[in-house]
Amino acid sequence: MDTKLTTPQIVVIADDFTGGNDAGVSLACTGLRVDVAFELPYHGNADVLVVNSDSRALAARHAASRIEALVHDCYSNPHQLLLKKIDSTLRGNPGAELEAMMLSTGKQLAIVAPAFPDAGRTTVQGQCLINGVPVTETEFASDPKTPVASADIGLLLQAQTTIPCQSMSLSQFSHRLNQYASDGPEIWVVDAQTDGCLDTIATQALAQKERPLLVGSAGICQALARQHVNTSPRCLLAMVGSMSEVAQRQIATVCRNARAESLVIDIENVLCGSPTHYLQQIINILSSGRHCIVHTCPDREARHRIPGLCARWQLTRPQLGEKVCHFLGTLTRQVLEAVTPDALYLSGGDVASAVAGALGARGFRITGCVAQCVPYGRFAGGLWQRPVMTKAGGFGDEATLLQVLNFIEER
């Protein structure tokens, strides 16, 4: 497990394990890294952290206490999107848990949309319907652990909270949200019969300067996922340690692509211990949606200057290579702790090994090949769990790295 404390973009608190998985799966399908935590604090690199409170069958006051404690441990940044996952049939303690989250976070508005149209769950005039039938006329009214006492969502919530609840149509919701000004905490129950209704709710909620607390089932999670589909251009971080002429021609060719930018690491900087400015340069390139090609060979003559470098710094060739590889491995780890490109390309066996070690990888699982000479797969364990491509320095032709970029952009 990674040792870094996770700082997710989205925090979801669910009241049971399978419900948490239902909330996370649609977000995971967009490419976001989704982890379901069994205990807090949680260490990792998740984009979405789903926390299971396991509180559905608890007494309301105990459920509220547990939620308050979890919020304290997993939600610390107001820029994070916070979502309360509830059961689509309203089982459990939705009112008590919702109130606990609002009080713990200071959220003044909660938007409750438990509809899940794909599963036949809709909200009409504030009523929870299962395939058009009020939930209290279905088997959920006699659930052995958590029976549902009312189909009126507002009344059901109001039985467990003193925060005012109001039910409204989708059009009323849109109108009121545009004019919303906080005058104390409020809970809005919003009608939804289709995925389009949930999309409207999610879109308008996310557009608010101060985001409300979203409350719902897997349906609102799917709507949220549709809002978070990654439409930004895919980008590659390439660490090229090879000084072969083939590798240099590959870099020159790929940098004719307007979205690719090369960055030369001056070995003198590495040896004298002043290379910190490279980190921010790489982060800036990747953050702008461009491919970043990092290499240590500025021209064809660079390899012939190695003996002079070794003599000046009193190093053998292997010692010099080890220092450069260690630096590139550490630099790669620092970059990936700050930004998340779509794939990592490692050229040169020593560099690939150094990067793998710096990232804490225990192995490499090969899953395919690009451009006939570039195996790709994923590291086993460690910080980086997205695609990794490796290439021997002298392999391929001038277009090899360009083909890798095209593969990343189209994949």
From TrEMBL:
Q: Where on the tree of life does the source sit, at the highest rank?
A: Bacteria
Outline the extent of the Four-carbon acid sugar kinase N-terminal domain. 10-224
What Pfam families does this protein's entry cite? NBD_C (PF17042), SBD_N (PF07005)
Q: Where is the Four-carbon acid sugar kinase nucleotide binding domain?
A: 237-401
Sorted UniProt keywords: ATP-binding, Carbohydrate metabolism, Kinase, Nucleotide-binding, Transferase
Q: What GO annotations for molecular function exist for this entry?
A: ATP binding; kinase activity
Against InterPro entries, the record matches this protein to: 4-carb_acid_sugar_kinase_N, 4-carb_acid_sugar_kinase_N_sf, NBD_C, NBD_C_sf
| UniProt key word Acyltransferase | no
What family name appears in the similarity comment? Belongs to the four-carbon acid sugar kinase family.
Q: What is this protein called?
A: Four-carbon acid sugar kinase family protein
Species, as recorded:
Jejubacter calystegiae
